[in-house]
Amino acid sequence: MSLSQVETALTQAYIDLGLGIATSYPNRIFEAPVDDIWINLTFNPTDTIPVTAFRGQDNHTGFMQLDINVPQDTGTSDLRNIADQLQDYFTAGTSFVYTSQKVIINSTRLTPGRVVDNYYRISATVRWYARTNRTN
């Protein structure tokens, strides 16, 4: 297991949702559309805790943040619709797999709306965990 497999599982799950919205991915060239909706995806591992002793399992936790951006002063209807779709898709207990690595969703929380760089934004924070077998 590697965190790259966890990141790939979550990123692919987002892509599979099929929103069809321009998306910025970590360390990729992206130019935000001026007059359209776009999403910024970030992957944030937070902790690794041993679950069992020698040659046991580790529990990895973190969150994927999806910043949904709409042009300022265009209302919130489209934004709320996308936020609802994300919250419905990444529900607690849902799991996603890449190769043999399973990632389980703990929760998805939406932030209040706010203005950031001339866009109105709501962030969906998708909290996850993944268990891995230790090799030593």
| Mean pLDDT reading | 93
Count of helical segments?
2
SSE succession: HEEEHEEEE
Q: Helical amount among residues, as a percent range?
A: 10-25%
Q: Provide the low-confidence segments as ranges.
A: none
Main sheet attributes: strand count, strand direction, barrel closure = 7 strands, mixed
Quaternary state of the chains: single chain
Structural class: alpha+beta
Proportion of β residues? over 45%
Total beta strands:
7
The outline comes out as elongated
Over the alpha carbons, how many angstroms does the gyration radius reach?
16 Å
What is the end-to-end distance?
13 Å
Task: Tell me what you see in this structure.
The chain has 136 residues and is an alpha+beta fold. It contains two helices and seven strands. Strands 1, 2, 3, 4, 5, 6 and 7 form a seven-stranded mixed sheet that branches. The model has no long low-confidence stretch (mean pLDDT 93).
What is this entry, summarized?
It is built from two helices and seven strands, in the order αβββαββββ. The chain is of the alpha+beta class and 136 residues long.
Please tag this protein with its features.
alpha+beta; 7-stranded mixed beta sheet; 2 helices
Secondary structure: elements and pairs:
Elements: H1 3-17, E1 22-24, E2 38-50, E3 57-71, H2 77-89, E4 95-98, E5 101-110, E6 114-116, E7 119-133
Parallel strand pairs: 1-2
Antiparallel strand pairs: 2-3, 3-7, 4-5, 5-7, 6-7
